[in-house]
Specification:
Helices cover 68% and strands 0% of the residues. By secondary structure, the chain is mainly alpha-helical.
Amino acid sequence: MKKHNQSDYDLVKQFIDGNQSSIEILINRHKKRVYTYIFLIVKKQHLAEDIFQDTFIKVIKSLRLGKYNEEGKFVSWVLRIAHNLVIDYYRKEKHLKVYSNDDNEIDIFNSQKFSDRTIEEDIISNQISQEVKLLIEELPEDQKNVIILRHYAGLSFKEIAEQTNVSINTALGRMRYALINLRKLIQEKKLTLTLD
């Protein structure tokens, strides 16, 4: 049987068993969808190309380390990796933003917002972030996606609607239900998600 006619599952298995050409077929089979997905979020060709390349480097490493399970579709797993790399990129960008004091009447560097947090505040903040991530994982897939695209990737509801092929009202509705469900989960688990 020709390799190009084989399922993703068979090609993944062959790659894990040492057949290098199988991964090339998988990349070629899904590159358009994965690249388009990344490009729709980042909207910059060179950045999309970099993240696309990083995605498949991570895919190959993860496959070699046995971190892929066959529960979902291969392409969905790849898109999840791409999505996480996009979020990582935006997180780093946020931390690297430079502020100038020259354009402001008030001294922004004398602001609480720019002061260093204590180690305790950092630890609590990291714990809160982890707890929120775990809560988001419990949401239905469509609600989870809208939260990730809005709050981690920074997309507008119009962009989310285009990205997920739904109307803006549907995207807004999913966000509303996601927030309602998150509040319920917080209450059920009796969590306190504040720095105070």
